[in-house]
Design brief:
By secondary structure, the protein is mainly alpha-helical. The chain is 50% helix and 9% strand. The chain is built from 17 helices and 12 strands.
Length: 400
């Protein structure tokens, strides 16, 4: 099977994808299912935009996450050292299966349920701090500290390092191309931090997930040292970053759609469906992690050459009218079954039960406390993170 000759789509405007990705992706989706694009880093990639193609591609074992299957000079994403890069986002089976199995038991629904009460206490304490003010920016005061507290408590990370970690991850998620030294500095700081943390946990193990992973590494030899460090980094990074944006985007969607907010307030059993619809409507991850075909691979009507970069647009798939009726409408009564915001197949998000639980508690605590909650946005609208890889808010001003 011969690869399809490239037909280059116009450069995707990063500013458009940050401000209104859904219009840009709709234009591409209707033009065709697969596009040869030049990404914002200037490197070529193939962008898949329609729901069925994206869903099948996520679970297709011929699409590798391992960078060793990439062509030289292609898109790799942020360059990280092996001690941070040897994680599930860069692995195929059998290594992916081995490492996923080691950590999966920490994120079962039963284990997550044990975190429900501590999460609610954290949410209530954060709301206690802002309640007397009558107004707040919900991202730094609520949506960000809630998940980082939960995931750090799970891992056994002390409170003194949490603000630094938020700063480092913010730098890595949206690196400044004019100041590459900032990203390098963040990587160096994270490596140094985890080296000290793992040494401390080895010296004094505790009843936490990180101590348990170290025991697996040291006693059973089922993890390399790089895999251990990378896994700890990924759990902390993903457990914080994606949940912040899911909480913020869900609150924004509800406050921008007062009819849906009223329906939720009238029946809090709709809390779970509201979170699922927000994940579909404006999810925290517009693009799945890049993949590389292990062989010349048909995608839609296109044959993508082996080793080239494939980007799967979850944002485009979730607004595909072939799959979701009236997809640009936010509707908490919608059947959202099959949405891909938390992955699919063997790459379904391990932390999905935790992210759902935290977002549901964040919403219920917030709406319980502030019946008059309303947006207090500046004239230019919400301030979003300048990133194609995440869809999140830097600020969410509200009054109550």
């Amino acid at each position: 099977m011969s690869p399809t000759p490239p037909s280059e789509s116009p450069l995707i405007d990063p500013a458009e994808l940050i401000a209104d990705p859904y219009t840009a992706y709709a234009r591409l989706r209707e033009d065709g299912p697969v596009h040869r694009i030049t990404g914002t880093d200037g490197l070529p990639a193939w962008l898949v935009t329609r729901y069925e193609d994206v869903r099948q591609a996520i679970a297709d074992p011929r699409l590798s996450l391992d960078k060793r299957n990439a062509k030289p000079g292609g898109y790799h994403g942020l360059a990280l050292p092996p001690a941070l890069d040897a994680n599930l986002l860069n692995m195929d089976p059998p290594d992916h299966t081995r490492i996923r199995r080691l950590v999966a038991k920490a994120f079962t629904p039963r284990q997550v349920e044990l975190l429900r009460e501590p999460t609610r206490r954290t949410a209530d304490a954060l709301l206690d701090a802002i309640a007397p003010l009558g107004h707040a920016d919900l991202i730094p005061s609520y949506a960000a500290p809630l998940p980082i507290t939960v995931i750090c408590d799970l891992l056994g990370i002390t409170p003194d390092a949490r603000q630094d970690f938020r700063s480092w991850t913010d730098t890595l998620v949206a690196p400044d191309p004019a100041r590459p030294e900032k990203a390098k500095g963040a990587v160096k700081a994270i490596l140094g931090y985890f080296a000290e943390l793992l040494a401390a946990k080895r010296a004094a193990p505790a009843d936490d997930l990180l101590s348990a992973l170290i025991a697996v590494r040291d006693d059973e030899d089922r993890l390399t040292e790089d895999e251990l460090t990378s896994l700890a980094f990924l759990i902390l990074f993903a457990g914080y970053e994606n949940t912040v944006h899911l909480i913020g985007n869900t609150v924004l969607a509800l406050l921008e759609h007062p009819g849906q907010l009223a329906a939720l307030r009238a029946d809090f059993t709709r809390l779970g469906p509201a979170v699922e619809e927000a994940a579909r409507f404006d999810g925290p991850v517009p693009l799945a992690i890049r993949r590389f075909p292990a062989e010349d691979l048909p995608l839609g009507e296109t044959v993508v050459p082996a080793g080239e970069t494939v980007l799967l647009s979850l944002a485009a798939a979730h607004r595909d009218p072939r799959r979701f009726t009236d997809p640009d409408r936010f509707d908490i009564g919608r059947d959202t079954g099959g949405h891909l915001a938390l992955g699919h197949g063997i790459h379904y998000c391990l932390g999905a039960p935790l992210a759902r639980m935290e977002t549901e508690i964040a919403l219920s605590a917030l709406l319980d406390r502030f019946p008059g909650l309303a947006l207090d946005l500046p004239p230019e609208g919400p301030h979003r993170r300048p990133s194609m890889r995440t869809r999140g808010l830097l600020s969410l001003p509200v009054r109550f």
